[in-house]
Design brief:
- It is a single chain.
- By secondary structure, the protein is of the alpha/beta class.
- It has 3 domains: about 100 residues, Rossmann fold (3-Layer(aba) Sandwich); about 80 residues; about 150 residues, Histidine kinase-like ATPase, C-terminal domain (Heat Shock Protein 90), CATH 3.30.565.10.
- It has 11 helices and 12 strands.
- Helix 5 packs antiparallel against helix 6, helix 6 runs antiparallel to helix 7 and helix 9 runs antiparallel to helix 11.
């Protein structure tokens, strides 16, 4: 099974019996007669799983568990308990032990528990490596794009893609948060949902990176007739994990009577994603007055059956002088953390749809961004039945 197990027990007979069994079913087994020796072996051999007795002299299993989770938190730990040690077993689970098994040990129970622990260990290891590689790629691309941003017209286009990558990276963080919760709770539904978010956004990053070679202008939108609630629902789904992590209440209010209109759903999704990301950033950096910040997404029918989107937050708000500069090229309210292109690109996409965007805000009372899109973009033929 190519997995290394560290077996910790002060009774030599138990160590030998379990070592023979584990070796026989394919594991590489290390042993330690005490908690102190186990920590020495752990630091030099880096086993995937530690199988540890709770009751040992000098340094008991709970102390060993605490030290392992402090030094190498990704290592899975299975505790061995007696039938009368249920309270201690529960305490171990609260300290992030993977599982516990009771004496006398049933071989089938031990084998199943080890299999599950190794699966969790491998998933964590792969996820960590995958995330580190992805973060390096995003960091590299962002650095390249921010440098290019300072190059007149090319800088504007390339930096826009950089901002899109940052938004996708934020959604990726949300997907990883869901996966971590799934691992913590051993919840396959959470794992599947989180993995779908990660896969979808990895594809988006790859596509954006490839588009750097031929993405010459923002005007490459692809219009089609769609339900205008689809982009806002997708943004809500993507940003829920980030909002939960920041302890911000994210709500959505949809007009279910909206009829399909002609727009580019991916481009509109990017616009709304940028607005929601900015709203969450503003709330995260500002202490709420009543305990919890709120970001609300709304859709409703607009003039002549178009659509109006609103992104409302309870953040610090924006004063008049700054609000008048929001849509200027490369102006940012985030200091060194922002490039100032997010709202600029959002405005351009809205204008390509023949729509408008404005900010309604008052210092200390939050902000509302209002996006209005018509039923179809300008210069679109009257007959849109083939779209």
């Amino acid at each position: 099974m190519d997995a290394k197990i560290l077996l910790v027990d002060d009774e030599e007979d138990i160590r030998e019996v379990l070592r023979f069994f584990l070796t026989d079913i394919g594991y590489s087994v290390l042993t330690a007669p005490s908690g102190k020796k186990a920590l020495e072996v752990l630091s030099s051999e880096n086993p995937s799983v530690v199988l540890c007795d709770i009751k040992m002299p000098e340094m008991d299993g709970i102390q060993v568990l605490r030290q392992i989770k402090s030094d190498v938190p990704d290592t899975e730990v299975i505790m061995i308990t007696g039938h009368g040690d249920m309270e201690l077993a529960i305490q171990c689970l609260q300290l992030d032990a993977t599982d516990f098994i009771t004496k006398p040990i049933e071989e089938s129970v031990l084998e199943f528990s080890l299999k599950r622990a190794i699966e969790r260990y491998e998933m964590r290891r792969q996820l960590r490596a995958y995330t580190e590689k992805l973060e390096q790629m995003v960091e590299e691309k962002s650095r390249q794009l921010i440098d290019a941003e300072r190059m007149a017209a090319i800088g504007e286009t390339v930096a826009g893609l950089s901002h899109s990558i940052k938004n996708i990276a934020g959604s990726l963080k949300g997907g990883l948060f869901v996966i971590e919760k799934g691992l913590e709770l051993d919840n396959k539904e959470y794992l599947q949902q989180g993995w779908q978010l990660v896969r979808r956004n990895v594809d988006n990053i790859r596509n954006l990176s490839m588009d750097l070679l031929n993405y010459g202008k923002v005007g490459s939108v692809k219009f089609r007739k769609v339900d205008p609630n689809i982009p806002i629902q997708e943004v809500f789904r993507l940003m829920i994990p980030r909002a939960e992590e920041e302890n911000i209440r994210l709500e959505m209010e949809l007009d279910r009577k909206l009829k399909p209109i002609i727009l580019d759903p991916d481009a509109v999704e990017r616009c709304l994603l940028n607005l929601v990301t900015n709203a969450l950033d503003a709330c995260a950096d500002h202490e709420p007055q009543d305990g919890t910040h709120l970001v609300r997404l709304q859709s409703e029918a607009g003039t002549a059956s178009g659509v109006v989107y609103r992104v409302i937050d309870t953040g610090p708000g924006i004063d008049d002088a700054i609000r008048d500069q929001l849509f200027q090229s490369f102006f940012s309210t985030k200091g060194m953390r922002g490039t100032g292109i997010g709202l600029m690109m959002t405005q351009k996409i809205v204008e390509l749809h023949g729509g408008s965007i404005r900010a309604e805000s008052e210092k200390g009372k939050g902000t509302c961004f209002v996006v209005r899109l018509p039923v179809k973009p300008p210069n679109m033929p009257a007959d849109t039945s083939q779209i």
